[in-house]
Amino acid sequence: MPQTIVVNGQPHEVKSSPDTPLLYVLRNELQLNGPKFGCGLAQCGACTVHLGDNAVRSCVFPVSGAVQPVTTVEGLAAQKPPNPLIASFVKHQAVQCGYCISGMVMTSAALLKQKPHATRAEIIAALDGNLCRCGTHLRILDAVAEAAGGKQA
């Protein structure tokens, strides 16, 4: 039986079985490429999206659980006016290969919704489960800290 989910403000009827990971529905049915498959075990954060205001790992989250609106990095990037967090990532050149960045941005955005003036320690704690193999961690932390209105370094 088809299920309707709201993604980036738009309703979508999905045909996948209810236990299909949300990530597969986003990428395969809805053709959204922001969330990435990293580990499939909810340990790297590359697949992070928002369900309501909460960051979730879409690689292990069943589509049947998507009863609140889903926001991907594409939805965040399309906001008007532009999302200051994304602008800060660009300013700080916090992207190298870009594979992890969707998850980094979405995790950071969820943190800043809950704690708009998060401290560097809170940012580090929130991003602890997101992996970046390129080593842009310091630039990522600086970008999030700036978006939170805090100091870098």
From TrEMBL:
Highest taxon above the source species: Bacteria
Q: In what residue span(s) does the [2Fe-2S]-binding domain sit?
A: 72-144
Q: Which InterPro entries match?
A: 2Fe-2S-bd (IPR002888), 2Fe-2S-bd_dom_sf (IPR036884), 2Fe-2S_ferredoxin-like_sf (IPR036010), 2Fe-2S_ferredoxin-type (IPR001041), 2Fe2S_fd_BS (IPR006058), Beta-grasp_dom_sf (IPR012675), Diverse_Oxidoreductases (IPR051452)
Q: Supply the CDD domains for this chain.
A: fer2
Q: Which UniProt keywords apply?
A: 2Fe-2S, Iron, Iron-sulfur, Metal-binding, Oxidoreductase
* Ranges of residues in domain 2Fe-2S ferredoxin-type: 6-59
Q: Does the keyword Cytoplasm apply?
A: no
GO MF terms on file? 2 iron, 2 sulfur cluster binding; metal ion binding; oxidoreductase activity
PANTHER family, per this entry?
Answer: BLR6046 PROTEIN, OXIDOREDUCTASE WITH IRON-SULFUR SUBUNIT
Name of this chain's protein: (2Fe-2S)-binding protein
Annotated organism of origin: Paraburkholderia fungorum
